[in-house]
Amino acid sequence: MNKEKVLDKIKKCLALSKSANEHEAAQALKQAQALMEKYEVNAVDIALSEVSEQGADRRMAVKLAEWQWAVANMISEVFGCKCYQQGDAMVFYGLGNRAEIASYAFDVVYRQISAARREFLKTCRARKPSNRTYLADQFCNGWMMGAWGAVKEFEMSDDEKAVMADYKRKKHPHIAKAVVRDAKSSKLDGSAAMIKAIVKGHAAGKKVQLHHAMNGAEGVKQIGERK
Questions:
Q1: pLDDT tens across 192-204, in order?
Q2: So where are the chain's domains?
Q3: Residues in CB range of 135: below 8 A, 6 or more apart
Q4: How much is the pTM?
Q5: How confident is the model at residue 210 (pLDDT cuts 50, 70, 90)?
Q6: Residue 82 has what DSSP assignment?
Q7: Where are the alpha helices (DSSP H) in 18-97?
Q8: For residue 91, what is the enclosing H or E element?
Q9: DSSP 215
């Protein structure tokens, strides 16, 4: 029996151990303990088995801008997950189905901010490509500030935070801090054009809506829903 099947059987026994039938509960708990001893499985192994990973569909650049990471971090906070970049994919991990919902939400929100960025560039008067990128990044930074104010963070319990920390230590001990692409413009830094871009982005970002209902497909359908 492989470890995945063992863990699944143990979890089923532990669920039955909460039965109102005292005899059934005792037998289930005894079986769970026997399996844990036989296959050298501990409580940490069982907790970590509840964590799943899901990569978002959108392909990303290897080096992301600060606003792109802000999207991933916001989605992680809203849906009670953590994230990391693997090649050109943004990967979310969390308890239960949170990673699956977060990866879907990331794609939805990223489409929204990308569309808003394209609309901003249509009206951007800067001609130099680097200046256009700089102002568009400032717009997106503002968009994310507005979005953060419009969504509600998912608060994990201390036990859940501990499981997530253990998972990171065990599964991804070498995840490095992200190095972001930094668009710069000495000419536009602090300028009226920069401030205007941030303000416009902030107003646009406040329109985003995310719902962290965690009940499967119905929760997924609510993501990005407008009232």
A1: 888 999 999 999 9
A2: 3-47, 50-222
A3: 120, 124, 126, 185, 188, 193, 194, 197
A4: 0.75
A5: low
A6: E
A7: 22-38, 43-48, 66-79
A8: strand 89-95
A9: S
